[in-house]
Amino acid sequence: MLRWLGLVGVLAVIIQSLSAGESPQPGRVQIPAGAKGVSVVSVWGEPEQQPALGHTTAMTPNGKFALYSGGGAINAEGGIEDGFLTLWDVESGRLLKELKVPRMAVTALAISADAKLALTGSLTGDAKSNETHANLSLWDLEAGKLKRDFGEQMGEVAAVAFSGDGKRALVSTLNDAVSFWDLEKPKPVAKLPSPKNTGAAFALAFHPDGDKVLAGQGTDLVVWSIETGKEVHRLKGHEDTVLMADVSKDGKRAVTSGADASIKLWDIENGAEIGAMKKEASNRALTSIAFVDHGRKILSIWTGFDAATGTQPQCEVSLWDGETKKTLWSQKSHFKGFVPLAIVEEGKAAIMGGGANFFARWNLADGKEERLWGGHKGPVNALAVDGEGTAYSGSADGTIKAWVKGRVVRTFTGHADAVNALALSKDGQFLVSGSADKTVKLWDAGKGRVIKTFAGHAGNVTGVAISPDFQWIVSGGNDRTVKIWDIVSAKERENLAGHAEGINCVALSPDASWLASASDDNTIRLWPLKDGKADPERGPLTLEEHKRQATCVAFSPDGKQLISGSQDKTLKLWDVGKAKVLKSLEGHKNWVSSITFAEGGKLAISTSDDFTVRVWDVASGQEVGRIDLSANSDCPRSLAYQGGRRFVVGTSGWMILGCRLNEKTKNQ
Question: Which CATH class for the 1-35+50-183 domain?
Answer without folding.
Answer: mainly beta
